[in-house]
Structures are given as structure tokens and as C-alpha cells.
Design a protein that fits this description.
The chain has 620 residues and is α+β, with helices and mostly antiparallel strands. The protein has helices spanning 2-75, 80-85, 88-95, 99-116, 151-156, 199-206, 239-248, 306-429, 433-461, 473-490, 510-527, 581-591; strands at residues 120-124, 130-133, 162-167, 174-184, 187-197, 211-215, 221-224, 274-279, 282-293, 298-305, 469-472, 494-498, 505-508, 535-542, 546-553, 595-600, 606-613. It contains 12 helices and 17 strands. Helix 3 runs antiparallel to helix 4 and helix 10 runs parallel beside helix 11 (510-527). The longest helix is centred in the middle third of the chain and has 124 residues, at 306-429. It is elongated and about 195 Å long. The relative contact order is 0.06.
Length: 620
């Protein structure tokens, strides 16, 4: 029961821990969100006031620059009307007007206007009728038009210079008019007027950073960067004032629609930081900076949409949010890093504990492994010793089979030695020393041949460790054939040898290769027992990187299903034998990176193929 309770408690604990972790995360996120909201509110409250003050200063400076630009433009033409009115040509023509004189006046005004760079230069008689104009030749000529209702004429005909702005009745262009009386002995003969076109000035103002309004003393917007604002009144105008403005034709046929929709929405144009303007059919609030164009009595407003102020404030809020986010990310990183560090420390302690346990186990395993390695080394040494003993046994077995041939090979030289020795005794008794010397030379030659035969068998039978070295393949084959020729001759087996030119080197222990060849030749001889015209052929094929030694017999051959089995240890088809000769032969060649295979001959019999790598020199 206790074990079950412990198991249930263990299963519940991770769930409770997970719930606590989720609560902690939720609380942290809530606090972070509240901190961000409080920060944004503080930033908006602080930045809004700062941005508003900065924008007001910016707009005031912009309005002053615009007003100065307008004033500078007007100042260029301020004294021109007075100078023109004082010209003698105008007094002469107006004193006694004639068709020729008026024509001369028109041409004079045209030339003068062109040199001054003004829009139009014209002259009115005391009744307000234009009698001469610089545009007399155009279709919009002022000549003959009555401008007596214009204030600039009314003031000039009273003997005072005047300035006036209005929308032209004929050109419909907004212009500024400078007028001056033409006097002769104190009598007003007429009025000279210079019209300046203001459209280029307004286009330059509209290209600046902020929107602008050019407002007259009657609260009518004479010019603005927004087409929706032009020739409208900022506040609702009394009907009497609207009638008076229309009668002056100052603003052409404009309706003078008010920005304000009711008397309650009228604005304090010259004190409030904000004014309301209609843009795109929607009333919006604009922050405003003001300046005065004193020469014309205009107020110039530079305005900024309140949305721009909001955008700037939100921009700072975004900056705050980014900084706040970076700080939160840094805090989260630090917190996560601390948790990871604690976890790593815990894991390190656990790892150290496990490493200590594993070290103990590895120490025991290492001791066992050393024992296994020592046992393997002993086994390997025993296997090598056994293999060497098998090779030696195989050699001795071959020597046993060759003993009859050796006996036959040595009997004839021994009989010859006996004959030469007996003959020498007889010749020595007769003191025929020259013939004795000849017999002794023959005896030495025969003993040399016997020594060569015996030495070949002695070298072959010697027990010695392998000592691979570069050897001419022809030398190995000839040495093996010298040993095998007596046996083959006794067995009645003919032999045919095809060797390449000398100099084809292989890296090997020559006695081991001789042993393989002797074993193959011995097997061939035994396989051809009872075969008529039995013969064996030893042929060497020279390849690019390999040398192939072929031992070919014309015996009955080996069945295909046995061609791979004959190389297995202790497999034999002979009545006597251990069945290890071919297995040892293949093993010897494989240790030299070579191979030994068996295949059927073209005309019957068996072909054993020895493949060995060529020796290229000391750098191989």
C-alpha cells in the first residue's frame, strides 16, 4: 500500500509543479504588460506636450519665413506706381486725350511693363475707365473696362497712393494692385495702377514643408496650400459683411463658404493653438503658427495636422516599446540563463556522480579487456606457430614424396663416382698421373652437381621465419622445377615452361612460393596418374601491376562444384594426404596480397592460377 501511495504521489508532483510554473509565467507576463502600458502612458503624456511646444515653435518660424517671402516680393513693386504716375507722357496724354496719344500711351505702358517685370500696367481716367493698358493688344485687354468700384482707384482718385489685393475680374488670377494718382498742378488727371500676379508666390509657399493659409482682415482665406481652403471664410460672416465683400468683387464669384458650420463653432483665429479646417470633407484640427504680412494686412498661418503630432508622439511610443522590449528580452535571457545555469550545475553534479560510477566500471572492464587482449595475443601467436608448423609439415610431406626421385637422382652420380675412383686407383698404380688428374676433375664436377641437388632440398626443407624480399620470378620457378624434375621424370610426366624475360620482380619469401609451385606440380603429377602423354605446363603472364603463374595439366580435371571446395582445410580426394596443401598454398599467397584459384582448362584438365603483385622498387 505504501508503494502504491508513493507511486501516485510521484505521478502528481510534476503536474503541480507545472501548474505553479504556468502561474508564475502568467503573473510575469501580466506585470510586464502593465509596466509597458504605464510606460506608454507616461511617454505619451510627456512627449505630447514637448512635441506640441516644439511644433508650435517650428510652425511660428515657418510662418515668419513665408511672410517674409511674401513681403519681399511685394516690396519689389511698391514704388513703381508712384514712379509711373509721375511720368510726363501720362500727363500729356490724359491732359488732351487723342487717338494717337492713347495709342502712344498703350505702347509706352507695354514697354514699361515689360522692363519692370510686372503683370499688367494700366491707367484709368477720373471716371474709373481704363484708357491705356500694357495688355491692350491681348484678348483680355483692360482698355475700356470700368474699375471705379475698386478701392485702389477710389483712394488714388482722392490723391493718395493705395495697395489692394483681389481676384482679377478679367484674368481670374489672384493679384496685388499698387495705385497712385496722376497729378497736374494738384489736379487728378487719372490713376496709374501696377498689378502683380501672386500665383507664383503661392506656388512657392505650397512647396514648403508645412501647409499655409493667407488670411485677410475679413477672415477670408485668400490663398492656401490646400484647394479646399481657398476663398472660404474661417468663421461664419454676418450677412451684411458678405454682401459688402461681394459688391467689392475682391474674391470674384466665390461663395465664401465658412469653415465653421454654426456660430457655436466659430474659432478664435489669433489666440488658439489649434484651428479647425475642412480637408476632404472632414473637419480636422490643425496646430497653427502665425505671422503678419504688414504691407498687405494679411495673416499668414503655417499649419500642421493634429494627426502629425499624434504620429510623432506614437513614434516615440514605438521607440519606448522597442527599448522596453529589448530590456524585457535581456531580462528573460538573464532569467533563462540563470535557470539553465542552475540546471547545468545540477546536471554536472549528477554527471560527476555517474562518471565516478562509470569510471569504476571502466576500470574493471579495462582489466578484463587487458586479459582478453593478452589471451588474443597468445592465441594469435599459437596460430602463427601452428601455421608455420603446418607449412613445415607440408614441405616435409612433399620431400617424402620426392624421396624416391632424389634417390634416383643421386644413385647415378654415386655410381659414376665409384667408377671414377676405382679407375683412378688402377691408373695411379700404373703412374698415369695425367689420366688420374682428369678423373679427379670429373669427380669434382659430379660432387658439385650432387651438392647443388642436395642444397636445393636442404634450403626447401629448412625451418626459417618468412623474409620477404624482391626476387626474380624466373629464379623461383627454376628452383622449384629443379626439385620437381626427378619426380616428374619418374612419374612419366612431361613438362613445358614459358618464362618471360628476366627482371620481373615480386616481393615474397621465395621458398614459400617454391612450396606452392611444388605442391601444385605434385598434385598435377598425382592427378595424371595413368594418363597417356601426361604433361604439365608452367606459364607466366605479365600484366601491368600483376604477374600470373599458371600450372596447367591435361589430367581428368576437377568437377566445377569442387573447384571452390578443394581449398578448404582437410578436404582431399586422394587416398593419402592431409588435405592441407592447397589451403596452405592459398593462405601463403593471400598474406602477400595475392590469390590462388582453380578453373577448368580449355581442352580439359585443370588450371591453377597464382596471382602476385609486381615489385616496383624501394618506394612501393
Amino acid at each position: 500500500m505504501s508503494m502504491v501511495t508513493d507511486s501516485l504521489t510521484t505521478g502528481i508532483q510534476p503536474t503541480v509543479a507545472d501548474l505553479e510554473a504556468h502561474r508564475s509565467v502568467a503573473l510575469s507576463l501580466t506585470l510586464l504588460l502593465l509596466g509597458w502600458l504605464v510606460g506608454v502612458v507616461l511617454v505619451v503624456a510627456t512627449v505630447w506636450q514637448l512635441q506640441e511646444d516644439e511644433a508650435l515653435q517650428e510652425l511660428a518660424q515657418e510662418a515668419k519665413v513665408m511672410a517674409d517671402s511674401v513681403s519681399s516680393h511685394l516690396q519689389q513693386y511698391r514704388g513703381i506706381a508712384d514712379a509711373v504716375s509721375d511720368l510726363r507722357t501720362l500727363r500729356e496724354v490724359l491732359g488732351a486725350p487723342t487717338p494717337d496719344g492713347l495709342g502712344k500711351l498703350n505702347r509706352f505702358l507695354q514697354q514699361t511693363n515689360r522692363s519692370l517685370g510686372s503683370d499688367t500696367l494700366f491707367v484709368l481716367n477720373p471716371a474709373g475707365i481704363v484708357v491705356g493698358a500694357s495688355n491692350y493688344a491681348s484678348k483680355n485687354s483692360f482698355v475700356g473696362h470700368d474699375f471705379a468700384f475698386r478701392p485702389y482707384f477710389q483712394q488714388a482718385v482722392l490723391g493718395e497712393s493705395a495697395g489692394y489685393y483681389a481676384v482679377g475680374l478679367i484674368s481670374q488670377g489672384r493679384g496685388y494692385y499698387f495705385s497712385a494718382p496722376i497729378l497736374d498742378d494738384g489736379k487728378v488727371l487719372g490713376v496709374a495702377v501696377v498689378k502683380i500676379l501672386l500665383e507664383p508666390v503661392f506656388e512657392r509657399l505650397a512647396a514648403r514643408q508645412h501647409d499655409f493659409l493667407l488670411i485677410g482682415y475679413d477672415s477670408v482665406i485668400f490663398a492656401a496650400s490646400n484647394q479646399d481652403w481657398q476663398l472660404r471664410s474661417l468663421n461664419r460672416l454676418p450677412e451684411s459683411q458678405r454682401v459688402a465683400i461681394r459688391q467689392s468683387h475682391r474674391y470674384g464669384n466665390s461663395s465664401l463658404a465658412p469653415m465653421a458650420t454654426s456660430p457655436e463653432s466659430d474659432q478664435n483665429l489669433f489666440d488658439d493653438a489649434y484651428i479647425q479646417l475642412v480637408s476632404g470633407g472632414v473637419i480636422q484640427r490643425y496646430l497653427v503658427g502665425r505671422a503678419l504680412v504688414r504691407e498687405a494686412g494679411w495673416h499668414l498661418f503655417a499649419v500642421m495636422p493634429r494627426m502629425e503630432l499624434l504620429r510623432r508622439t506614437l513614434q516615440f511610443s514605438i521607440y519606448f516599446s522597442l527599448v522596453y522590449g529589448l530590456l524585457v528580452l535581456f531580462w528573460l535571457y538573464w532569467r533563462k540563463r540563470s535557470e539553465v545555469q542552475r540546471h547545468v550545475n545540477s546536471m554536472n553534479l549528477e554527471l560527476e556522480r555517474r562518471v565516478a560510477g562509470l569510471t569504476s566500471e571502466l576500470t574493471e572492464s579495462n582489466a578484463e579487456l587487458k586479459q582478453l587482449v593478452a589471451h588474443y595475443q597468445r592465441t594469435q601467436s599459437e596460430l602463427e606457430t601452428t601455421q608455420n608448423q603446418l607449412i613445415q609439415t607440408a614441405k616435409l610431406a612433399v620431400l617424402g614424396e620426392l624421396s624416391a626421385g632424389i634417390n634416383h637422382e643421386l644413385n647415378q652420380p654415386l655410381l659414376a663416382l665409384q667408377t671414377y675412383a676405382e679407375n683412378s686407383q688402377k691408373l695411379l698404380a700404373r703412374e698415369r698421373f695425367t689420366l688420374v688428374a682428369d678423373n679427379l676433375r670429373e669427380i669434382l664436377q659430379i660432387t658439385g652437381s650432387m651438392h647443388a641437388i642436395v642444397s636445393r632440398f636442404k634450403v626447401f626443407a629448412r625451418r626459417s621465419p618468412p623474409d620477404p624480399r624482391p626476387v626474380d620470378v624466373n629464379e623461383i620457378i627454376n628452383a622449384a622445377l629443379m626439385i620437381m624434375k626427378p619426380l616428374l621424370k619418374k612419374a612419366g610426366v612431361g613438362i613445358e615452361v614459358e618464362l618471360p624475360p628476366s627482371g620481373q620482380m615480386i616481393l615474397c619469401e621465395p621458398v614459400q612460393i617454391q612450396q606452392v609451385l611444388i605442391n601444385l606440380l605434385t598434385n598435377a603429377s598425382e592427378a595424371m596418374e595413368g594418363v597417356v602423354d601426361a604433361s604439365v605446363q608452367v606459364r607466366v603472364e605479365d600484366g601491368d601491376d600483376q604477374i600470373r603463374i599458371l600450372v596447367i595439366d591435361n589430367g581428368p580435371g576437377i568437377a566445377k562444384e569442387l573447384q571452390s571446395t578443394i581449398f578448404e582445410p582437410f578436404f582431399t580426394t586422394k587416398r593419402k594426404g592431409l588435405g592441407i596443401g592447397l589451403a596452405l598454398s592459398r593462405r601463403i599467397l593471400e598474406t602477400l596480397s595475392g590469390s590462388l584459384t582453380a578453373e577448368s582448362g580449355v581442352n580439359g584438365g585443370t588450371v591453377f592460377v597464382m596471382t602476385l603483385r609486381k615489385h616496383r622498387g624501394v618506394d612501393e
